[in-house]
C-alpha cells in the first residue's frame, strides 16, 4: 500500500496524455551545483511560458489550472492529476498531462528522455495536506532516470486548500540520503517501516500546521538537502519554511516578490 497522501511513481503504466487546449487539464479525459537563492528558483520557474497553450500559459497559470480541476471544484476529476513540464530542444516548456491510474493514489508517469524543469501534481481531500513519502521517492526516481535535477521545481496543490513547492538545495545530500533511506522500498515490509517512520512527522490525522512543521523537521533531521515553500492561494506570494531544532518550530520567511 502506498502512503495515503498520494504520490507520483514513474512507471510504464497506462497514462493519459493529450494536446492541451487551455480549457481543460488535458486532451485525454473520457548538472552542476548552484548556490542560487531557492526563492529565485520558484520565481523564475513561475514566469516560464508553456508552449502550445492557448491562450499562452506560464507555469503559474498551469498551477491555477490544477487548482481549478481539484475534485471539489470539477466533479469530473475524481483522482490526482499532474503536469510534467518538459524542456524541448528550443529550451521551451511543453506540458504533459497525467492522471491517477489506480486506487492507490498513484499517478503513473511515462516521462520521455530529457529534462523536466517543473513537475506539479494534486492531492485529494482524503490525502495528505503536504508532500507524501511516495512523492519524495518519485523525485529520487526522476533524478536517477535523468528527468529531474537540482533546478527542477516540484509543486503540490491539494484539495485541503494548501499549495507547496520543493527545491533541491544540495543534490549530493539528497542523492546520498534517498539511496540509503529508500533501500528495499520495493519490498512491502521495508516500505511499511519507512512509511511508519514518516507518519511520526506527517500524517492525514495531523493539522496543516503540524504537517508543515513535521515535514520541515523531517528534512532537517535527515539532512535531505530540500527546501520547502508554501504558497498563497493565488500562487503570487511564497514563503520558505525553515525548521528550528532549538524551538521545534518552523518559521515562515517571505520570498521577495
Describe this structure in words.
With 257 residues, the protein is an alpha+beta fold. 27% of the residues lie in helices and 25% in strands. It contains 6 helices and 12 strands. It has a 10-stranded mixed sheet with strand order 3-2-5-4-7-8-9-10-11-12. A two-stranded parallel sheet has the order 1-6. Strand 11 and strand 12 (249-254) form a beta hairpin. The model is unreliable at 1-34 (pLDDT under 50).
Condensed summary:
With 257 residues, the chain is α+β, with helices and mostly antiparallel strands. It contains six helices and twelve strands.
Task: For this entry, give a set of tags.
two-stranded parallel ribbon, alpha+beta, 27% helix, 257 residues, ten-stranded mixed sheet
Amino acid at each position: 500500500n502506498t502512503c495515503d497522501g498520494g504520490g507520483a511513481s514513474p512507471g510504464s503504466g497506462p497514462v493519459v496524455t493529450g494536446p492541451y487546449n487551455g480549457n481543460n487539464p488535458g486532451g485525454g479525459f473520457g548538472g552542476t551545483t548552484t548556490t542560487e537563492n531557492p526563492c529565485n528558483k520558484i520565481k523564475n520557474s513561475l514566469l516560464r511560458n508553456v508552449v502550445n497553450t492557448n491562450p499562452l500559459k506560464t507555469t503559474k497559470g498551469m498551477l491555477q489550472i490544477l487548482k481549478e480541476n481539484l475534485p471539489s471544484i470539477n466533479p469530473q476529476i475524481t483522482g490526482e492529476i499532474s503536469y510534467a513540464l518538459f524542456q524541448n530542444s528550443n529550451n521551451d516548456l511543453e506540458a504533459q498531462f497525467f492522471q491517477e491510474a489506480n486506487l492507490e493514489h498513484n499517478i503513473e508517469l511515462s516521462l520521455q528522455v530529457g529534462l523536466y524543469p517543473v513537475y506539479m501534481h494534486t492531492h485529494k481531500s482524503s490525502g495528505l495536506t503536504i508532500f507524501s513519502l511516495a512523492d519524495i521517492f518519485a523525485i529520487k526516481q526522476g533524478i536517477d532516470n535523468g528527468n529531474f535535477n537540482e533546478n527542477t521545481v516540484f509543486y503540490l496543490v491539494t484539495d485541503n486548500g494548501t499549495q507547496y513547492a520543493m527545491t533541491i538545495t544540495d543534490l549530493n545530500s539528497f542523492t546520498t540520503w534517498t539511496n540509503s533511506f529508500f533501500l528495499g522500498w520495493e519490498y512491502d515490509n521495508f516500505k511499511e517501516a519507512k512509511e511508519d517512520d514518516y507518519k511520526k512527522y506527517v500524517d492525514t490525522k495531523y493539522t496543516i500546521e503540524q504537517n508543515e512543521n513535521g515535514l520541515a523537521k523531517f528534512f532537517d533531521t535527515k539532512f535531505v538537502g530540500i527546501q520547502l515553500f508554501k504558497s498563497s492561494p493565488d500562487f503570487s506570494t511564497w514563503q520558505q519554511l525553515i525548521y528550528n531544532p532549538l524551538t521545534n518550530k518552523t518559521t515562515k520567511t517571505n520570498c521577495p516578490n
